[in-house]
Each structure stands twice: as structure tokens, then as C-alpha cells.
User: Fold this.
Amino acid sequence: MSNPRYIAALDQGTTSSRCLLFDEDAQIVSIAQQEIERSFPHPGWVQQDATEIWASQLSVFTKALTQAQVQISDIAAIGITNQRETTIVWDRHTGKPVYDALVWQCRRGASIIDEIAHKIEPNVIQEKTGLILDSYFSASKIAWILREIPGARARAEAGDLLFGTVDTWLLWNLTGGAVHATDMTNASRTLLYNIHTCEWDNDLLRLFDIPRSMLPEVKPSCGYFGHTDNQMLGHGVPIMGVAGDQQAALFGQCCFEPGDVKNTYGTGCFLLMNTGGSPVRSSHGLLSTIAYADSKHVTYALEGSIFNAGSAIDWLKDGLELIRSVDETEALARSVNDTQNCYVVPAFNGLGAPYWDTDARGAIVGLTQGVTRAHVVRATLESLAYQTYDVLRAMQLDAGTELKTMRVDGGVSRNNFCMQFQSDILGERVIRPCNTESTALGAAFIAGLSVGFWENLDDVRACCAHVDCFEPTFTRSQRERLLAGWDRAVHSVLA
Assistant:
């Protein structure tokens, strides 16, 4: 039998499940994708069918192999990356979820968060977890399921229920129920994990009233998680790397040194800065989180989360019906010289960093009779750059460093208008890799390094040498005028 020739990256995102096969040059040899549905039963509630998440991920895995005419035995290792704070609770005996997956965007745990806020000192959560007390993270979602789903509390206390973020759910199913585990990056997004001790925190478990028996084992991102079930795929493949999607993108962008920054433009928009071997406590509304870890070292990052990025463009298509396809947006934005001082603030389910206002709601500010469809589309695209600026400004203040270059990836990064405007509003260079699949690539790199598919970080860097660059063209006065208008617009929607 020949040596395995490929790494499989399972990329389970908010709107689709994907599988990408990479060769030794980190080139994509096959990609398969399947859309998955979200439901919105009440304002601020977002959920998905957990069984659909698993079924779609298994389907695209087998489809990617078939497309490339690759045998399962040709796969050296699997890496998993996933939408992070999304919460699934299931029965350990039957493997069936007790309720739909509560998506990271879901705000239904807000009342639980309000209750807890009255029980503790404000800084306790941040000191232990690097996070803020918010329903965005998994803990309040678990607590809601235990409180609201009939019988869930009793079953959990009897040891019959398991919790996992999406990576844990995929691992459980891939291994035929043999492995209940997560990695440090995903654990650090739950509000239950102490990023200093790298352990589940008993005080936080008591605070949220969550039984420890529900929680998965926490492992380093790089290393052995288990083998796929032989009966499922006909051949056991080692699962050698797991990381939350934004941390995987940081790794896939080769942000290995303190101060390196990347921004991923997906459903949301996520800025991460590598801060090295120590967490940086933010005083400007950012999160401190685990970037990745191996058996010897833990690397940390500062993160700013923007709730609506690609979803704002989807709103133009599905909500307002201003466009038939997202591909139209670049030409429409370029068809006008500016937005006529119109600003779109896409706070559909609150504002993330640095504001963290769950009650804020979106607005179109500065409407006049001269504003057309093209102006609204352009203003929506520009809002992504403005939100990124706000987060980056806070990040620079916390870390005490100046940005020289920002690396970008994700679907929206392929929009040249967006990336040029991003460079203009930052006043700094924006670098986009020719392969914008940084999230999947990061998962592949982590798994591949674990099995010697790539020997070291220099091998990884060599795979990421080809990039596109966007240089700023605005004058300082142009930037300041536009940013002042954005500041007025965003403060008009704050609760």
C-alpha cells in the first residue's frame, strides 16, 4: 500500500458543511459543500438540526473522496474546524440530541446571563475565561436547555446527557460514540473553561448549574483525538487536529508570531491577534482566548467578534431583495462614487466587540431621496470595514502594538471592493492569500503537522507564499470624515 497522500479538513460552518482534501503542497484537490438550514423561531433565536449537521458533514466527506477518486486509505489524517459556541446536548446512550443545536448567534440565554450578572463581581468571568458575560457563549445555552427542555435537568444530573460544541458532536459520531472530547480553543469559548489553569472551572460550573459529567475531555489542538469508526468508512483514519474556525484561520494564515493579525469575513467577522504565550486582558471590550495548543505550549490571542458580516450581504438578497446574487454587490458598489453619507449599521442581533450591546438593533442612517439601491449596497459593504476598524483600534490599545499588515480570508474577502475599502479605511496594507480557504487550511496544517505530513512551521509558511495586496489610497482627512460619520451612526443604535 502506498503512503497516504492527503489531509482531509472537515469544515463545519454556520451555513454549510464542507470537506476539503489537501496535498503536500497545501493545494486543494477536492472540495465538497452542502448547505444547512437555520431556523429563527423567535426574534434573536437561532437554531439548527444537529442531526443535519452530522449527516451533511459525513456526506461531503464521502463526496470529496469520490470527486477526487481518492480512497479512504489515502487520507493520512483528518482535521476538524467548526462554528464555535454553537451548543448541542445529546443522550450518551442513544446519541440523539435532546433539542436543536443552539447556534452561536442565538440570544435566548440572555435572561440567564442577567440573573448571573447579579450574583458575581463583574471581573470574575473575564479573569477566569478571558471572555465577557454574554449569551453568545455556550454556558447560557446549556443552562437554557437544562431549564427549558422537560426532563433534561434530571437526565443530566443522572449522567445521561452530554454537551459538546460542534467539534465534539462530530468527533462523537465519527468515532461511533467512542470519543467525547474537544480541544482547548473550543473549550475556551464556553464560559466554563479557565484559560490560565487550562481546566474546566468548578466555580463557573456551579454558577451556571451545569453538571461536570456533561463536559467533554479537553485536549491540545494538535494531537491524537481518535480513529474514525471502521464500520462507518471501511478504514480507520486518525483524527489529529481540532480547532475552532477562527483559531484555525489564524493558523492557516501563518500568524505564528505575537502581533500577527488576521480577519475572517464569514457569516460574522472575526479579528484575531496572536499574543504569544500569555493571555492579554482587554480593557476595550475584546476577548482573550486560546489560539492553539500542542502538548508543550499554549498560544493565546486577542479576538474581536462582529456578529454580522456575510449575513448582512445575505440580508440584501433575502431580506430586502435588492440583489439576486451576492456576486452583484461589487459592481453595484463601484457604480456610485460614495454612499451619499448613508450608513448601514447591521446590528440585527446586537453589536459585538467593542460595544457588546445585545439590545442594539440595526439601522440605515442618513437616508435621503437621492439614496438608491446601489448606495445601500455600498453602505452595507462598507459597514464591514468600519466594524473591523473599531475592533482593530481596540486591539491595538490592548496589545500596545501598531498594525502594519492585516491578513484576510473568508468568502467576503474575495470581494475586491470590500478589501480595497478596508485598506483605505485602516490606512494600512491588506494581504489576501491566493487560497482564501484559510480556515480549512489551518485545520489541515494542524492535523498534518501532528502526523509529519509537514515537518515544521517553515514547511507550512512555504505553502502560503502567494498573496494579493491592497494598498491604502485615502488621505487622512478622507478617512477621518468617513469614520466620524460611522461613529455617529453606530452610536445612534446603541441602547
